[in-house]
Amino acid sequence: MSITQEFNLLRKRFRTFYPVVIDIETAGFNPLTDAVLEIAVITLQMDKLGWLHKEKTLHFHIQPFEGSNINSESIAFNKIDPFNPLRGAISEKKAIESIFKIVNQGIQLQGCSRGIVVAHNAHFDHNFLMAAIHRVNIQKNPFHPFATFDTAALSGLVVGQTVLAKACKAIGLSFDNNQAHSALYDTLQTANLFCELVNRWKRLGGWPISEHKKNKLQCPIKT
Questions:
Q1: Residues 197/172, Cβ–Cβ less than 8 Å
Q2: What is the DSSP letter of 220?
Q3: C-alpha distances out from residue 105 to 12, 91, 115, 146, 218, Å
Q4: Which residues pair with 58 in a beta bridge?
Q5: Per-residue pLDDT for 154 more than 60?
Q6: Distance between CA atoms of residues 223 and 62, nearest Å
Q7: DSSP reduced 3-state for 155
Q8: Distance, CA of 109 to CA of 103 (rounded, Å)
Q9: What is the mean pLDDT of residues 157-163?
Q10: What is the pTM of this model?
Q11: What is the mean predicted confidence (pLDDT) over 119-124?
Q12: At residue 204, what are phi and psi to the nearest 5 degrees?
């Protein structure tokens, strides 16, 4: 493997972090009291030329945990009936066990140190994920406890948009508003957006960083 190929490996690109795109649909805004209703996860891979792509997908309908709150306004917004038997919902524990399995496999395969959540307005999804992990008491959480990659912030920088639908359209991706607020669709679109943001930076010459580029791009700091 050449030096360029080695530098482009996923573990080199994100400081040994393994990016995992996640979207969580909930029955409210409080991660400690409100139910998780859907979780979708997409793992990513990097080819030998350094381009980022989607890899594996998981999607689960989740049974509200015992004693959880179901906020009527949230249900009206995401149009999820938590108690519809046709949802095929599973427990938080089963879903998280499956997510941990695929993330740990990816971390090992890519030689990374731990997973990092990629999400749109990532603080929300990360908080709900961490709360669910704590509730089900599964040890050896592979995700970073606080660091995230937030595509809302990245999109604000690159295309001047922070809403997922507008950011996708601004960067040249399609977006179907009728499918929005489904965990699976939003995760798919967030993964497409993140890959395009990373790959666009590479196409513009921002990655990999060389000493020549560092000197060329360096801007004097005004005091």
A1: no
A2: P
A3: 18, 22, 11, 21, 39
A4: 41
A5: yes
A6: 53
A7: helix
A8: 10
A9: 98
A10: 0.92
A11: 98
A12: -75, -5
Q: Is 181 a catalytic residue?
A: yes
Q: 54 or 219: which carries more pLDDT confidence?
A: 54
pLDDT for 223: 45
H runs (alpha helix) in the chain: 3-8, 10-13, 72-78, 92-110, 122-136, 151-158, 164-171, 183-203, 211-217
d(CA 95, CA 100): 9
**Residue 75, token pair as written in the block:** 């249900």
Report how far residue 27's alpha carbon sits from residue 32's, in angstroms, rounded to the nearest whole number: 11
Name residues whose C-beta falls within 8 Å of residue 67's C-beta, 6 or more positions apart in sequence. none
Among residues 135, 39, 26, the alpha carbon closest in space to that of 77 is found at 26
Question: Which residues are CB-contacts of 36 (< 8 A; sequence separation ≥ 6)?
Answer: 24, 25, 26, 27, 62, 64, 65, 92, 128, 132
Whole-number Cα distances in Å, 215 to 170, 200, 205:
30, 21, 13
Tokens of 66: 């015992």
Q: Which two tokens stand for residue 44?
A: 């990513």
Q: How many residues does the chain have?
A: 223
- For 29-42, the pLDDT digits (tens) are 999 999 999 999 99
Could you read off the pLDDT of 58-91 as tens digits, one per residue?
999 999 999 999 999 999 999 999 999 999 999 9
59, 120, 126, 181: the catalytic one is 181
Q: List b or e across 156-167, with b for residues whose CB sees 16 or more CB atoms inside 10 angstroms.
A: eebbebbebbeb
